[in-house]
C-alpha cells in the first residue's frame, strides 16, 4: 500500500472545512499555526476568527498595543505565543516592509517559530518540500511504522522528521502535510481510534502487533510542583480595587493579576491577616478579610499545579494605583483570574 497516496485520498473526502485552508496568505497561515499550538481546533477557531477580524493584516497586528493583543488572546494560555506573535509581526513590518519571508531557512529565524511552524508556512504558502511533524504526525508515523523512539527526545525528533521528509509528496507538499495532520486529528486519534474504518489498517504495524495504545512513546515528564497562591481582592467603599502587571519572565508576563501572596503550604485566615497587616500601606488601617472559595481552585500548568485561594478584603479607602471595578474587564488577565472575575461578579458589589 502506498502510504502517501492513501493519506491524501483519505484527506480529499474527510477534511474539515476550516478558514485557513482557503488561503495561502502567510500571515493567516502563521496566525492559525500559532493559535493551534497547544490548542484544539474547536477552541482555537473563534480566536483565529477574532484575530483576523480585528487585525486583518500583519500591519494591523504590528501596530496594536501589546495589552490589546494579550486581551484578545485571553483564555488560550501559553501567553508567550501571543507575545512572540506580536513581536514577530513588528519585526516583519519594520525590517521587511510587511513581506513575510518565503523560505523555511528564513522563516525559522523568526521569534516564536520552530521547525513545525516554519515547515507548515513554507510548504502551504510557498510550496517548499519540507515536512511538518506535530503531535498528530508523530502518532500516525509511530503507529504505522511501529517506532518506539520517544517523540520528546532529540533522537526521536530527528528520526521522525527524516521519515516524514521521505514520505512527503514532492509535487504537492502542502497537500500531504495538511493531510497527515488531519489524519492524525480525526482518524488516528490518541485514544480509541476507529481502526476498523482506517484505510491503512491492513499495513499498520502497531495494529497488527496490538500496540496502538502503546504508541507513540514519550519519556516521563518531570513531576509538576505544587504552589500555593493567595490572591488579595481589595474592594473599597467607592468600588476601587488593585490590579498589578506581572513583570519579568514567566508564562503570565505582562498580564495583570490581583496582589499575590505565595506560600509554601496552605495558609489560614489568621496567618494571612497578620501578613497583610505587615504591609506598609495597610498599617493601622481597618479592613475585613474573608475567603471567597472554601476549597482551593487547582489550576494545572505543564510544570506546576497552582492551589489558589481568593481572599476578599473590604476596606474604606486605598491609596496609590487603584482602578475602578467597572474597568476590571479591560485588562488582560490569566484565565485563572478571569474565571474568578466572572464567578464573583463585581457588578453586584
Automatic annotation (TrEMBL):
An example Gene Ontology biological process: mismatch repair
Annotated keywords: 4Fe-4S, DNA damage, DNA repair, Glycosidase, Hydrolase, Iron, Iron-sulfur, Metal-binding
The record's free-text note on cofactor binding: Binds 1 [4Fe-4S] cluster.
Cofactors, names only: [4Fe-4S] cluster
E.C. no: 3.2.2.31
Function: Adenine glycosylase active on G-A mispairs. MutY also corrects error-prone DNA synthesis past GO lesions which are due to the oxidatively damaged form of guanine: 7,8-dihydro-8-oxoguanine (8-oxo-dGTP).
Protein name according to UniProt: Adenine DNA glycosylase
Record organism: Neotamlana laminarinivorans
Amino acid at each position: 500500500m502506498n502510504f502517501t497516496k492513501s493519506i491524501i485520498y483519505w484527506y480529499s473526502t474527510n477534511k474539515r472545512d476550516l478558514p485557513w485552508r482557503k488561503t495561502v496568505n502567510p500571515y493567516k497561515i502563521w496566525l492559525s499555526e500559532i493559535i493551534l499550538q497547544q490548542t484544539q481546533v474547536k477552541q482555537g477557531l473563534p480566536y483565529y476568527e477574532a484575530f483576523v477580524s480585528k487585525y486583518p493584516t500583519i500591519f494591523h497586528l504590528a501596530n496594536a498595543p501589546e495589552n490589546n493583543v494579550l486581551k484578545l488572546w485571553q483564555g488560550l494560555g501559553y501567553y508567550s505565543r501571543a507575545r512572540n506573535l506580536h513581536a514577530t509581526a513588528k519585526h516583519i513590518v519594520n525590517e521587511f516592509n510587511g513581506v513575510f519571508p518565503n523560505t523555511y531557512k528564513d522563516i525559522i529565524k523568526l521569534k516564536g517559530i520552530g521547525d513545525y511552524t516554519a515547515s507548515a508556512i513554507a510548504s502551504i504558502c510557498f510550496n517548499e518540500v519540507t515536512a511538518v511533524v506535530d503531535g498528530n504526525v508523530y502518532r500516525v508515523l509511530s503507529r504505522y511504522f511501529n517506532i518506539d523512539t520517544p517523540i520528546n527526545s532529540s533522537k526521536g525528533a530527528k528520526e521522525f522528521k527524516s521519515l516524514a521528509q521521505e514520505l512527503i509528496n514532492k509535487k504537492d507538499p502542502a497537500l500531504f502535510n495538511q493531510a497527515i495532520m488531519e489524519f492524525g486529528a480525526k482518524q488516528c486519534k490518541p485514544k480509541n481510534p476507529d481502526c476498523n474504518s482506517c484505510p491503512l489498517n491492513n499495513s499498520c504495524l502497531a495494529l497488527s502487533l496490538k500496540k496502538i495504545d502503546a504508541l507513540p512513546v514519550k519519556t516521563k515528564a518531570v513531576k509538576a510542583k505544587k504552589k500555593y497562591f493567595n490572591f488579595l481582592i481589595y474592594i473599597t467603599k467607592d468600588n476601587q480595587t488593585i490590579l498589578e502587571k506581572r513583570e519579568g519572565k514567566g508564562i503570565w508576563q505582562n498580564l495583570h493579576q490581583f496582589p499575590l501572596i505565595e506560600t509554601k503550604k496552605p495558609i489560614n485566615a489568621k496567618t494571612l491577616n497578620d501578613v497583610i497587616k505587615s504591609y506598609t500601606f495597610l498599617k493601622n488601617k481597618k479592613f475585613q478579610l474573608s475567603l471567597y472559595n472554601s476549597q482551593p481552585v487547582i489550576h494545572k500548568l505543564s510544570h506546576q499545579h497552582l492551589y489558589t485561594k481568593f481572599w476578599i478584603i473590604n476596606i474604606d479607602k486605598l491609596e496609590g494605583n487603584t482602578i475602578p471595578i467597572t474597568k476590571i474587564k479591560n485588562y488582560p488577565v490569566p484565565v485563572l483570574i478571569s474565571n474568578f472575575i466572572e464567578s464573583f461578579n463585581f457588578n453586584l458589589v
